[in-house]
Amino acid sequence: MVVCTLACWRCRWLLPLLLGLAIIMGIIALAGRGWLESESEPYVHQASLWESCTRGEQDINWSCESLMDYGWGRAAAATYLVGFVILVICFALAVIAFSVEILRFNFVRGIGGLLFVVAAFQIIGLVIYPVKFTEEIPLIGDNMFSWAYGFGWASTVVVIGCAFFFCCLPNWEDEVLGNIKPTYYYSSPERAPYLN
Known about the structure:
Blueprint: H1 14-31, E1 36-38, E2 45-47, E3 51-54, E4 63-66, H2 71-99, H3 105-136, E5 143-145, H4 147-168, H5 173-177
Antiparallel strand pairs: 1-2, 1-5, 2-3, 3-4
């Protein structure tokens, strides 16, 4: 029977895989046009991290305004983008760290520290955007922060979880490297009479 927990050698690729998932969600958040959308018909407003688009109820074409003309728009985009770039660097470092036969666990803990920095940058961008957007951009009808904004938060939550695991992984160094013999527990003496 094979038991695989986080602290085993075969499962060492789970953390870089989760970082890759966070990168994919970050790409969707950066490229998606669904940060803010009209909640119901008529769909007259949609926005991304980069621009805000509106149209009349009878119009087909969207009229877009860049959010980079606003200081808060540049700040939100810059902080989320800086966090994303550091996340990509952490992913590359994690792949390198887990490819080496003898892991350098202080190196792994450093990746965890960088991931907390990533989370801080992404949270700042994700908080600046809705607060300043609703203050400075006139909203028409009922609007909601939508799927792309949700992917930004999902990426941030995965990064926070990975940061904790990367910081705690050196505590299980012997288990990960396979330096400890497994301990077997038997429920009754009848099942293991040779132990008496």
